[in-house]
Amino acid sequence: MADTTANTSPTFVAGSLIQFTQTAPGQYEAKQVQQPTGLPDTLFDSKTPINWTEGPVSISGWIDLSSLNVTLNVSVMGMALGTVVGDLHQGIILTVNLMLEKGSLTFHLGSGNELMVKVALDGIYNWSDDINILKL
Prior knowledge:
This protein is mainly β.
């Protein structure tokens, strides 16, 4: 559902799907359902795929090595936040404002020609680091 009332890009609401099942009398299971990435496999034909997880952050997607454009699906604490698209030369900032985790993830080009993510999270995970995800 998009909110286009502001002068910025549309806002999309994302969430996690939970399957809640009674497994026996008095016993229940709440299981998070895996969500599709939303990226067709054909997008990876001419691009380098990215699949990275550390701590509460998971990133999948691709990078076009000729332009350094990226398309990344980002999850924090198992919750799919959405897909960010941009140019590593300019950097991409994703502000995280969840109930249990707040902060930002900044994707940028490292000085040694790497895809980097600067993690600044405060909440359950107090984590601040600049991490090399992929050597380009």
